[in-house]
Amino acid sequence: RGGGGGGEGGISRSIHPSLLHEMPSVDLSPSEQALRQQLLNSATLTETAKGLDELIRETGAAMSRHRKIEFEEVAPQSAPQEPAPMTPEEEALRKAQLEAEAAAQAERVEKARKERENAFRYKGTPTPLLEELRPRLQMGPIPVNDFMQQALAHPKHGYYMQRDVFGTK
């Protein structure tokens, strides 16, 4: 399999003879022909013992070249210049801007902290049952069983005492 065919920057193997009969005769541009050749070479390489390793190395090298080209397109053409030294007025203005930004950030943090603290507080009118449960809740968490027992069966304010759930009234 394979042979000594060569290609520029591509995988250097020739097309396997079994693949030649599968290639339709279509007029392709040179770049399309190169792509087809590379794909066929890749398919041939995967059948060889070390083909996959070579394919991985060459793909990695191609990706490296592509990243380098992209970086060169994005990177500035000249070397970065040092910023000009600031005058005392500019330094004072910049310092004032930084202090204002820091104060605004601290204010936003404090506001968010207060909102988090107040988010879990009941904001509606307290019900009689809530007034009964509040002292117990302030001591700490209570088991769900205890809470539900009070909410459902409290002698004055429980759900069962407020509604005719059993059809007796």
Q: Characterize the quaternary organization of these chains.
A: single chain
**Helix count, per DSSP?**
7
Q: What letter string, H or E per element, gives the SSE order?
A: HHHHHHH
Q: End-to-end distance, in Å?
A: 94 Å
Major sheet? none
- Compute the CA-based radius of gyration: 38 Å
Mean pLDDT: 74
Shape descriptor reads: flat
- Ranges where pLDDT stays below 50 over 5 or more residues in a row are 1-12
Q: What fraction of residues sit in β-strands?
A: under 5%
Which class best fits the helix and strand makeup?
mainly alpha
Helix content: 55-70%
How many discrete structural domains? 3
Provide structural commentary.
Residues 1-10 have a biased composition (Gly residues). Residues 1-32, 73-127 are annotated as: Disordered. Helix 2 (30-46) packs antiparallel against helix 3 (51-74). The protein is flat. By secondary structure, the protein is mainly alpha-helical. The chain has 3 domains: 17-74, no CATH class; 85-121; 128-162, no CATH class. The longest helix is centred in the middle third of the chain and has 32 residues, at 88-119. Residues 1-12 have low confidence and may be disordered. It starts with 16 loop residues before the first helix and ends in a 7-residue tail after the last helix. It has helices at 17-20, 30-46, 51-74, 88-119, 128-138, 144-153, 159-162. The protein is built from 7 helices and no strands. The chain is 60% helix and 0% strand.
